[in-house]
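In the design runs reported in the main text, the only information available to the sequence generator was the tokenized backbone. The following block is the verbatim input for one such run; it is reproduced so that readers can re-run the procedure and compare outputs position by position.
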């Protein structure tokens, strides 16, 4: 669940396209995220999906025509427009797109959108030739120029049997685009590198040295930065997490592979957040075959891995560099020492011992330490909330 949509007033507009059935799933996703959703349907949309289904899922009266009696009588569309935090039109037919581009208000949905000041996300879906027709493309450009957000359709086999662009993106993709539309775009155009997850140092073909990092914190930062407009590269060790949308993900296994990926992309970055749990040591030798248990004891000789953070700290220039310090004791001293030694702008310190350990958990309790000597203790937060708080601080401090 994302805090972005909790208690937000979202209006879903549904027009008469074959993909109207997907709006049922979209509505379910939105309500699951805690959003307060009201549905507006064109008369033709009601031929594809029953208002009753949407009424039951939203728990609210569905508006299907302008002069509807009852709760939303006469000027209901103005009331809904005033309260809206965002609007999604999915699917948007060629017809609704044409009417919106021309300022026509001849039904409840088109009248409503004229009165809205909140962001409007339009999701066109139609036959490929219809979608590619000059008039639909011209109308979409006009709507884009007017400040509306267009989520371009996917390509694939359409219900009409044609293959090409025109398919309504999956509800999850629509939801993700909506969340982005509702986020501040304060990292717009910034190039952000995030490292996440554990590294693995092979001992033999079936064993390795590693740590319990789940990667959740780094993935949350990458996702939040992308939503706030950044171009994000995520360098990740092995995790069970889904790739965040629209993020370039580079997968690595060892600390040495992490180092080469970081060094390869470091130069082009504006902000670097190193949240990965990189192994300090690796076995000196990696056995070619599985080591047999024919001895009672065995020695594993370890050698130091390169200190990636210290290396980029030396070369950081005016890039904003954030490190993480996972400590089991003396957090303030250890974190501030690491901040200075590695030439960081900010370090996120936490204690990884006992019940509050962040390893694998969905929550984290951290303290932030800054280059100027200031520090800030944050309360226990979920990792998404914390990711946004860290980005708030990075934006404030990198703009100084
Ligand atoms: C079976 C069927 C499927 C349709 N699918 C679409 C569609 O996917 N996209 C679209 O733009 N129009 C589609 N149309 C045409 C629209 O329903 C038609 O243009 C209608 O006037 C749209 O009305 P509305 O925009 O007020 O809902 C379809 C029509 C039929 C009969």
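Verbatim output:
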């Amino acid at each position: 669940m994302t805090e972005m949509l909790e208690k937000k007033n979202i209006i879903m507009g549904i027009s008469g396209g074959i993909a109207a059935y997907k709006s049922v799933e979209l509505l379910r996703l939105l309500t699951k995220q805690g959003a307060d959703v009201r549905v507006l349907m064109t008369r033709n949309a009601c031929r594809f999906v029953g208002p009753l289904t949407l009424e039951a899922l939203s728990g609210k009266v569905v508006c299907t025509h302008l002069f509807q009696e009852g709760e939303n009588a006469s000027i209901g569309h103005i009331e809904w427009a005033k309260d809206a935090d965002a609007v999604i039109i999915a699917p948007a037919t060629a017809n609704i797109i044409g009417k919106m581009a021309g300022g026509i208000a001849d039904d409840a949905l088109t009248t409503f959108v004229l009165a809205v000041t909140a962001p409007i996300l339009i999701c066109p879906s139609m036959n490929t030739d219809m979608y590619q027709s000059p008039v639909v493309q011209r109308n979409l450009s006009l709507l884009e120029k007017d400040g509306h957000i267009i989520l371009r359709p996917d390509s694939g086999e359409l219900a009409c049997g044609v293959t090409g662009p025109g398919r309504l993106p999956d509800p999850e993709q629509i939801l993700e685009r909506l969340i982005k539309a509702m986020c501040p775009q304060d990292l717009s155009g910034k190039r952000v590198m995030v490292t996440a997850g554990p590294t693995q140092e092979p001992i033999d073909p079936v064993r390795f040295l590693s740590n319990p990092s789940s990667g959740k914190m780094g993935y949350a930062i990458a996702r939040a930065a992308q939503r706030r407009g950044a171009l994000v590269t995520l360098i990740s060790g092995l995790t069970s997490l889904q790739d965040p949308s629209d993020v370039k993900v580079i997968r690595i296994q060892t600390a040495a592979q992490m180092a080469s990926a970081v060094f390869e992309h470091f130069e082009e970055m504006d902000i670097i957040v190193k949240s990965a749990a990189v192994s300090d040591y690796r076995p000196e030798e990696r056995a070619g075959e599985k080591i047999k248990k024919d001895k009672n004891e065995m020695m594993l000789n370890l050698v130091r891995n390169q200190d990636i953070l210290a290396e980029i700290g030396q070369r950081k220039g005016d890039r904003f560099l954030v490190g993480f310090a996972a400590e089991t004791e003396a957090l303030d001293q250890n974190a501030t020492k690491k901040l200075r030694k590695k030439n960081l702008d900010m370090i996120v310190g936490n204690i990884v011992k006992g019940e509050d350990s962040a390893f694998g958990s969905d929550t984290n309790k951290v303290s932030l330490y800054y280059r100027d000597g200031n520090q800030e203790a944050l309360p226990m937060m979920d990792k998404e909330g914390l990711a946004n708080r860290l980005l708030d601080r990075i934006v404030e401090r990198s703009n100084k």
